[in-house]
Design goal:
- The chain contains 6 helices and 4 strands; from the N terminus they run βαβααβαβαα.
- It is α/β, with parallel strands linked by helices.
- It has one domain: Response regulator (Rossmann fold, 3-Layer(aba) Sandwich).
- Helix 1 links the parallel strand 1 and strand 2.
- The longest helix is centred in the C-terminal third of the chain and has 20 residues.
- The radius of gyration is 14 Å and the shape is globular.
- The two termini are 15 Å apart.
Length: 150
């Protein structure tokens, strides 16, 4: 089983979008039984809060439910448990390293590094542009799936 943990700052926008898009994509490909997929935050600011309403609406508009998801913070145990820890941006990559220390097992990566145009996943918290975030998440998840299924 391939275990993936998506990470953003609050775990209410980008990382839950990535979690549920990835779950949807592996189901569509008929390989969901080969994956365990979750998401978490690097901060404690949103712990226990549901997915941010505009992010939830974006997922719903594409037929994807995130029902029941609440924000949680990444732990050291997550580093031991998951095979891939995928950060949405460089700031969260640094925050992950503060939480877990050195990435001795080479599990931590940036989402868009699985694409042809490495960059940070657009943060809709500041821009309100959930479409660009959706597009980035789609592209990143597709690249990650292709990498993992090769």
């Amino acid at each position: 089983m391939i275990k993936i943990l998506f990470i953003c700052h609050g775990n209410i926008c980008r990382s839950p979008m990535a979690e549920f898009v990835m779950k949807h994509k592996v189901r569509e490909r008929g390989v969901a039984d080969r994956f365990e997929i979750a998401s978490a935050a690097t901060s404690t600011e949103e712990i226990g809060n549901p997915v941010y309403p505009p992010a939830r609406r974006m997922l719903q508009s594409h037929g994807i439910s995130c029902e029941g998801k609440t924000a949680r913070q990444m732990t050291q145990a997550d580093y031991q448990y998951y095979d891939y820890i995928v950060a949405m941006d460089a700031n969260n990559l640094r925050n992950i390293q503060r939480l877990i220390g050195p990435d001795v097992n080479h599990k931590v990566s940036l989402m868009m590094d699985y694409t042809d145009s490495p960059r940070d996943v657009a943060d809709p918290w500041y821009t309100g542009d959930f479409q660009t975030t959706w597009d980035d998440v789609q592209e990143g998840c597709e690249g990650l799936i292709e990498t993992l299924l090769q």
